[in-house]
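User: I'm writing a tutorial on reading structure tokens. Could you give me a worked example: one chain, its sequence, then its tokens, then a sentence or two explaining what the tokens reveal?
Assistant: Sure. Here is the example chain.
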Amino acid sequence: MPNALTRFHRRHGRGPLIAAALAVGTAAISLATPSPVAADDGDTIDGRYSAGGVLAAGSTLELDVTGRGGTASNAAAVSLNITVTQTAGPGHATVYPCGSQRPTSSSINYGTGMTIANAVVAKVGSGGKVCIHTSTQVHMVVDVDGYFPAGSGYRSLTPARLLDTRRGQPTVDGRYAGGGIRKARSVIELDVRNRGGVGNSARAVTLNLTATQTGGAGFATVYPCDEPRPLASTINYGPGATIANGVTAKVGGDGRICVYTHARAHLIVDVDGAFASRDEYRPLTPARVLDTRPGEQTVDGRAQGGGRRTAGTTLRLDVTARGGTASNATAVSLNLTATQTGGAGFVTVYPCGSSKPAASTLNYGAGATIANGMTARVGDNGEICIFTSASTHLVVDVNGFFPPGSTYRGLTPARLLDTRSPAPPPPSDVAAARSLELLNALRARHGVAPVTYDPGLSASALGWSQEMSRSGFRHSNIGLAENIAWHSQSAMSPTTAAETFHVMWENSSGHFRNMIDPRWTRVGIGLHAAGSGWYGTHIFDR
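And here are its predicted structure tokens:
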């Protein structure tokens, strides 16, 4: 029998998901605490480029990107999310087409002991590869979320530097070089057309914006110079930081973009490509479509002030017909910000209606404010899904969208590279393995097909068990069939905890029905030990 302190609950079927909302001003960034990077096991979508070991300082990796993760063999450019982790020292990485000379630009910047991500639209080089140069020793993770086929209206470029305010640093044509640190609350007007390979008719450009030697906590906003500065941020930084973010920016009618800096900082801008046709990409003045913080506003009053996202939960966000985005948009260009974070974690953005992938969009430490740009495929009902592994406020700004006639092909994010070696299984995974074994043995005894262990659902289940240990025993709002349990004996081994919870659930009629329900084909399992005892969660889905 369970002891008197044991409680357990079940939930049947599917309920509504919480529709919460999210925006960002100034807040310090803290990235020194390493944060998770989705699946921490070295796996990739096809087993290639998996667990290859740390990248040495000054080395260059050639990465096959075509014909993998849904990317076509004739892809001319790919939309990537680059994550560095376990960094040995300050440095940067540069992504460029293999077969070209490595440019004097950076795709991501990092300090010692960081986990940090950045979005890059990279031109595909010889052999269907992109090259990644790392200046210092790092582990690296690369996810792909879309591509442009050959002949598309997107002109991919070898990265070229258009702006560098630091003294003595060059740009591609000598213009906008060494102008000095940008003052707080100042705006620089930057010519982007007819520079670095950008054509005279460019309507939008893909950029990498870096803030460095920052004088305080602040943010920068990129927008077209012939329009008012929007309520949106492109990059957030703390004092003494060096941090980069990718952005697809609308070009003003005069061929310029404006960059507003809220707090003093040096700025660097590199260009990766350009759009000339409205049929390919529709750039927008950035508009806020989500802000969970109390009292903050979105462009239309929807998805605002909904409160901090809890660990292990998924938010469905309507992104079409908002902020200028068409109702039939197939993909959207976004800037995602996590702020007032409750612990080390990550965010994964993916099309609703698809399973949550083993990929990460944004990584954060405790007490951070950090942003990352991305291109997201629009899912069911015009929605994207946003999973948070640790509690955080979220802010989302939309910069543009891809109409149905666009050649851009958005993908459910897929991992192409993970240099990390699989870690020894933590107690929670030992418990999950035993729990799955017992569950499928029970289903077999009752003539029901086994369920498959789902990594995405399991991340949600473990996140919820951890959240219960912090804030109390209760059901989540995930909206799926769910069994939860708590036992006060924290000294139990992982195996014993799994076996104890299995008996508790099997002896409860409601929990038992969930366990042997033939509708379920996938399960998420998360068991967590804390000072107050063991907490367990099973999440079932078709």
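What the tokens reveal: The helical segments are 427-445, 455-471, 494-506, 509-516. Residues 84 and 539 are 31 Å apart (CA to CA).
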